[in-house]
Amino acid sequence: xxxxxxxxxxxxxxxxxxxxxxxxxxxxxxxxxxxxxxxxxxxxxxxxxxxxxxxxxxxxxxxxxxxxxxxxxxxxxxxxxxxxxxxxxxxxxxxxxxxxxxxxxxxxxxxxxxxxxxxxxxxxxx
Length: 126
Hints:
- It is a single chain.
- The chain has 1 helix and 5 strands; from the N terminus they run βαββββ.
- It is of the alpha+beta class.
- The protein has a single domain (12-114), classed as Hotdog Thioesterase (Thiol Ester Dehydrase, Chain A, Roll).
- It has a 5-stranded antiparallel beta sheet, with helices on one face.
- The model has no long low-confidence stretch (mean pLDDT 95).
């Protein structure tokens, strides 16, 4: 797999801790998905200028494991905007502790819907 680190700043950076791992020191996939969702949620909220919620995750692929101590950077880019929804391309990259080498570990498309105070869909550009 040949990938290039995105040129823009990450939406979020987190260090993987022992509580996030199994007995072999590999980080749980669910933890990684939650970090990706948090980064994508921040991106969606800024684009929608308000509350937005995850409604789907498509195309999740895990390429390599994340280990305890790795720094995980989540990069998000708004790919498509509809009336009330947004598709955000999300990539997670790992940088091992004491190294400058980075590797893409997973990617997915996250779909968000902008909602109002009553939890009902609203236009993204409102």
